[in-house]
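ok trying again, last paste got cut off:
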Amino acid sequence: MSLRHALLGLLWTKPSSGYELVGRFEGSLGNAWHASHSQIYPELARLREEGMAEVVGEGPRNSRTWAATDAGRAELRRWLTETEPNRSIRNETGVRWFVLFLLDPDDRRAVLERELAYVDEEAARLDETRTRIDADGGSAFRPVVDLGIRMDAVMQEWLREQIDATREP
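nice, full thing came through this time. structure:
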């Protein structure tokens, strides 16, 4: 994933401080990618050097509010419309599910139940995010939150089916 493009997208929708970006990143893209302060701040500096982001405000304790520039929005548009995504994704969960069926039913059920608990928590978090977005008057990211909710529903159904299958003779 391109951290710079994720940040440009977040800054396009709303100017933010680095601290706010960390929270917005986690709240919107956290299920796809994790980015820490130590990754975000240097990338903001690079975006500024390249003319794709600018400081539009300064606050207490040297905080800066950043926004995407026209060049940044053009770069995000170019990246979305002219490049193909890297579709080779490492997914440890996918590997675990691939080999999960080598376990005996009791162990398999325990792993599946743990995974279902995680997906249930993620679904609740996304539902809270959707509620917050709606209360704030909407967001360009609402369709992506809806997609996450649908994906979680499919995963919950599949996990329940697999758990039930461990109970069959």
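cool. The chain has two domains: 3-82, 92-167. The longest strand covers residues 53-58.
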